[in-house]
């Protein structure tokens, strides 16, 4: 059986797709690049924005046109959202769709693909990316009013630490960097009497030759144990934190259901972690145009972004998602206004990112080679993408380098 596999969305989805690849290999099936060459297509869906779901729908329709006999299964977050039987947006109404598999239910996917049940237990020992992904948990116990992921993924569920240590050891045989991912990884261990910091300590001890990176952690969930690793475990833990902000307005944070921090609490957590560090990559997510957002709220977000040492931002205009509480909030923001505010935030983010990159010129870096062919580049420990002065280094290689500005581009220059 030939299977076309396509992934939309976050690193948690990308990890799940790697597990699907391992399952297919265990069952003797082959993954093909083109839908036209496949017997079955598996689309791993995202529900974060309407745009992500629209992209999924286009891809499913295009695959059905390319191969009318194609059987299609949709898994992931969008497939898990509840929809009325009469809803024209039902995914199982798309051409060729035979089954919807909620989230990352591998046993259900094996049944949908007519694979033996034991194939669902397969775990990838090597992944397609230069940097490997390690999903440490699934689900989220919070209820942000804009987020459909909690609806799709359910409550927090931590994977056993022993399982993760074994998997990390196998992945580190082929990958120099392992990225810890999930839906809400800062809550890892709350259901098992442990913590993300304890897991990271154990990973560093078990696999000391790998470098570990956290994908996304709430700023106020970085406890002293985790902060010490981020600040002081050079060569083992990347000095990098992507801490979702969403808004710099406390009023908006309350409307978003993000009750566990204020703008000042977020800033204090970040400043405690980053202050005094010449090398520390700080990123965040920000939503522009959330229902009820005023110009004053937007100005508060701009001011907080300007104040904090961000190296990058992911900025999203608000996207209403079916079933979320935010769709019932009054005072929607006009799309043109949301786009303008997003543009202002992105411009500020570019300026701050450029300033941070400039501050790294002449400094040392720990570089992993990523990408293929003309897209080959390097990824530093603080999440800067750099040009490689030595293009002969193989994908996945890790080496110390010095950062220089060559032909206007931040470049990793090999050191002896």
UniProtKB/TrEMBL annotation:
Cofactor needs: [4Fe-4S] cluster
Name this polypeptide is given: tRNA (N(6)-L-threonylcarbamoyladenosine(37)-C(2))-methylthiotransferase MtaB
Signal sequence extent: none
Gene Ontology MF: a single term: tRNA (N(6)-L-threonylcarbamoyladenosine(37)-C(2))-methylthiotransferase activity
Provenance organism: Roseisolibacter agri
Alphabetized UniProt keyword annotations: 4Fe-4S, Iron, Iron-sulfur, Metal-binding, S-adenosyl-L-methionine, Transferase
Residue ranges of every copy of the MTTase N-terminal domain listed in the record: 1-125
Sequence ranges assigned to domain Radical SAM core in this UniProt record: 126-355
Matching Pfam families: Radical_SAM, UPF0004
Keyword set includes Transcription regulation: no
